[in-house]
Amino acid sequence: MNKYNIVLIGFMGSGKTTIGKRLSLHYKKEFIDTDDFIEKKEGMKISEIFQKYGEEYFREKEEELCERFSIKKSKIISTGGGIIKNTKNMDNLKEGGIIFYLQTTAEKVIENLKNDNTRPLLQGDNKYEKVKALLEERTPLYEKYADHTINVCDSSLEYTVSLIESIIDDFK
C-alpha cells in the first residue's frame, strides 16, 4: 500500500467519496477528493466554476491535479466522474496507483443523487436520460482504465469497502 495510491473512479453518485473516506480511515492514509481539492483551490463550488469558466477550464484543473498526484504515493484518491475523459489524467493516476472502478447503473445514480442539485451536468429536466447517456459514453473508459471493477449496485457499503481492502491486502 505504501508504494501505491488507491484511486477510485466511477460515475457521480457511485460512492467514491464515501468509500474513499472509509479506506482512508482503515489504512490511516490521506484522503483526497479531486472535486473537493479543486473547489478549495479555486475558492468556489464546481457548479460555480462551470458557470463562470466552463467545463474546459475545470477539466484543465483536473489535469493539473492528476499530474501533481502522480508523483505522490500512499494516498486514497476519489476522482470526479469525468476525469477518465482525459487519457493524460488516467496515465498519471495509473502510474502510481491501483485503479478501482465503482460500477453503477443510471437507476442507482438517480436514487443516490435524488436530493443533490449541485451537479452541473445534471441540471435541468430529464436527469435519468442525461445520466444514462453519460454512463453509456463513459463506461467503456471506466472499464478500460480499471485494474479492478466493483459493482456497487447490490452491495452494502461495508461489503464494498471490505472487498476493496481484501484486493489491496492481497496485492501487498
Detail the topology: elements first, then pairings.
Elements: E1 5-10, H1 16-27, E2 31-33, H2 34-42, H3 46-53, H4 55-70, E3 76-78, H5 87-95, E4 97-103, H6 106-112, H7 127-145, E5 148-151, H8 157-171
Helix pairs in contact: 1-8, 2-4, 3-4, 4-5, 6-7
Task: Please state the overall shape, judged from the principal axes of the Cα atoms.
Answer: globular
Q: What is the CATH topology?
A: Rossmann fold
Category from helices, strands and their pairing: alpha/beta
The gyration radius over C-alpha positions equals: 15 Å
In round numbers, the mean pLDDT is 89
The share of residues in helices is 55-70%
| Spatial order of the strands forming the largest sheet | 2-3-1-4-5
N- and C-termini, Cα separation: 7 Å
Largest sheet: 5 strands, parallel
Based on DSSP secondary structure assignment, what is the total number of beta strands?
5
- The CATH fourth-level homologous superfamily: P-loop containing nucleotide triphosphate hydrolases
Low-pLDDT stretches are none
Estimate the strand proportion: 5-15%
The number of helical elements comes to: 8
Oligomer: single chain
H-E order? EHEHHHEHEHHEH
- The CATH C-level name is Alpha Beta
What CATH architecture label applies?
Answer: 3-Layer(aba) Sandwich
The total domain count is: 1
